[in-house]
Automatic annotation (TrEMBL):
SUPFAM superfamilies: Dihydrofolate reductase-like
InterPro entries, per the entry: DHFR-like_dom_sf (IPR024072), RibDG_C (IPR002734)
Bacterial bifunctional deaminase-reductase C-terminal domain: residues covered: 9-180
Name listed for the protein in its UniProt record: Dihydrofolate reductase family protein
Species of the source: Microbacterium sufflavum
Pfam families recorded: RibD_C (PF01872)
Length: 212
């Protein structure tokens, strides 16, 4: 990548209407903290979002993942490079995969995998200089770090019309106060699942008083 056209860090998350992003894909994916609804996304089929997910992956040329999500992906996608999900499996298997961890002895057996996390800001800058689109998928604990430090360029939220009331939220209290920019109109399918694409800006929220 040239300095005139830096790459982007894109966060892709499935969220409930009350902001829960924990364990969407399977009943055993993430039950930490006694979470009872792991697998909530799989339990609410969305007829229109599959095509949007596929379209969003077309520019992906690297993955940046938290350790838990990396382990889930590494145990699943290399064995699913054929059939209905084969195009995603082949893509994930082929691209470089960066895993956020401070453990220097971390074993990463999936081909093309390497560790980041010693100096995240510098490493994110290097990824932007190396790749067009680095996607952070799931990895909610790691996403909290990126949101707190402003180390992302685009946030893609698939919002499901579900209320869980408990679980890890997209935004925690450490999120950097920011004004995001809606990049294009929302996409909504027949099940009421909505895709929102936001770009990060350098603006911070302002305050005022109505009628003052």
């Amino acid at each position: 990548m040239s300095e005139d056209a830096p790459g982007r860090i894109l966060i892709d998350l499935f969220s409930t209407l009350d902001g829960v992003a924990q364990g969407p894909g399977g009943v055993g994916e993430d039950t930490s903290g006694g979470f009872r609804f792991s697998g909530w996304q799989a339990g609410y089929p969305s007829p229109g979002m599959g095509a949007e997910v596929d379209a969003g992956m077309r520019g992906l040329d690297a993955l940046l993942l938290g350790r838990r999500t990396y382990d889930i992906f590494a145990s699943y996608w290399p064995q699913h490079t054929d059939g209905e999900e084969g195009h995603i499996g082949r893509l994930f298997d082929a691209v470089p995969k960066y895993v956020a961890s401070r453990n220097p002895d971390l074993a990463l057996d999936w081909q093309g995998s390497s560790r980041v996390g010693d100096d995240l800001a510098a490493e994110i800058a290097r990824l932007r200089a190396t790749h067009r689109e680095v996607h952070v998928i799931g990895s909610i604990d790691f996403v909290h770090t990126l949101l707190a430090e402003g180390l992302f360029d685009q946030l893609n939220l698939w919002v499901y019309p579900l209320l869980l009331g408990t679980g890890k939220k997209v935004f925690d209290d450490a999120a950097l106060p920011s004004v995001l920019r809606l990049l294009e109109p929302p996409v909504v399918d027949d099940a009421g699942v909505m895709l929102l694409r936001y770009g990060r800006t350098d603006r911070t929220p302002e305050v005022g008083t109505f009628g003052a």
